[in-house]
Each structure stands twice: as C-alpha cells, then as structure tokens.
Amino acid sequence: MNLRIFSAAILAAALLGIGQGNAQQTAANPLDAVPEKMPFNTPYGAPISLQRAQAAVQAALDEANKRGWQLNIAVVDSGGNLVTFARMDGAQLASIAISEHKARVAVKFRRPTKYFEERIQQSDYKFILSLDDVIAARGGIPLVEEGKIVGAIGCSGATGAQDEVVCMAGAATINK
Predict the structure, then answer these.
(1) What is the pLDDT of residues 26-74, one digit of tens each?
(2) pTM
(3) Domain range holding 28?
(4) Of 65, 69, 90, 118, whose Cβ has the fewest other Cβ atoms within 10 Å?
C-alpha cells in the first residue's frame, strides 16, 4: 500500500512540474510582449525619382558584376510601384517577379524582407506566412531618404545572402 501512495505522489509531483513548465512557456511567449513604441514605423515619403532609383540599380549592378553574380534588380517607389528594373544577362527568369516582390514587401511592411525570413526560420513564427503579400526571403530593403521611406530595392537570382549583399550596395546610395 505504501508503494502505491509513494508512486501516486511521485506521479502527481511530475505532472505538477510539467504543468508549471507549460505555464511558464505560455507566459514568456514573445508574441505576447507589448513594445512601448511602434516597431518599423518609419514614415512614407514622396516617391523616389527615376534618377535616384537608377543610381541604386547601378550600384547594385556594379556589386553583382564585381562578384560575377547574375541577378534581377527592381526598385519600387513609396507606393510599391515599379520605377526601374534591370535583368542581367543570364539571370534566372523566375527571379524577375521575385525581385519585384521583394521590393514591394520591403516598402509595404517598412522593413527588410530578411526580417520575415528570420522570424519564420529562427522563431518558428509560421503565422507570418498568412499575411498578405509576404515573401520570407532576404533581398528586399527599404530605401530611406531624410528619415522617410521613398521606395525599396529587391534583388533575386542567387542565394538569399548574395541577393542581400547586392541590395545593400544599391540601398547604400540612398540610405545615408
């Protein structure tokens, strides 16, 4: 009889411990955190000019050529409309639309597309995939001029890391 009582007590303690562990996980859920300030709240500005967009594309092309990577590069304005586009010789055809998509997402959500990739891969935030127009691949970067988003650049055709390097070179002409 004592063995049964002892076994029951051990089982109850174990279940209680498991329950407390689950309660702590739920309470510590990062999605429940309420930030003091609105994240990614850079205001939208006037649309990027064609001349500035072409300068960003040229800087991206220079970086891609320097590294021998064939990419598609798109720049959209602050409303997500295509301003200019370049397809390098030999660039992957599927990446034409992807480069534009990355640029549109970066401007619409006011953050680099790498943000979505990291949240899904590292934090397992699969719910992000249910948001309209998301692309969870790096290579889309907002273009900020005088503290306002004027557009975004998107690159595609290589690995995500390569796309991002080329985009950053293009964005550096605007984001100073």
Answers:
(1) 447 676 788 788 877 899 999 999 999 999 999 999 999 999 999 999 9
(2) 0.79
(3) 2-32
(4) 90
Distance in angstroms (rounded) separating the CA atoms of residues 60 and 163: 10
pLDDT in tens, 86-124: 999 999 999 999 999 999 999 999 999 999 999 888 878
The answer to whether position 130 is within a domain reads yes
Residue 44 domain-assigned (yes or no): no
Structure tokens, 48: 């990027």
Q: Are residues 160 and 134 both part of a single domain?
A: yes
Q: Same domain, yes or no, for 92 and 20?
A: no
| Domain count for the chain | 2
Q: Specify whether 28 is located in the same domain as 87.
A: no
* Alpha carbon separation from 15 to 20, 65, 122 (Å, rounded): 9, 61, 30
Q: From the CA atom positions of the chain, what is the Rg in Å? A: 23
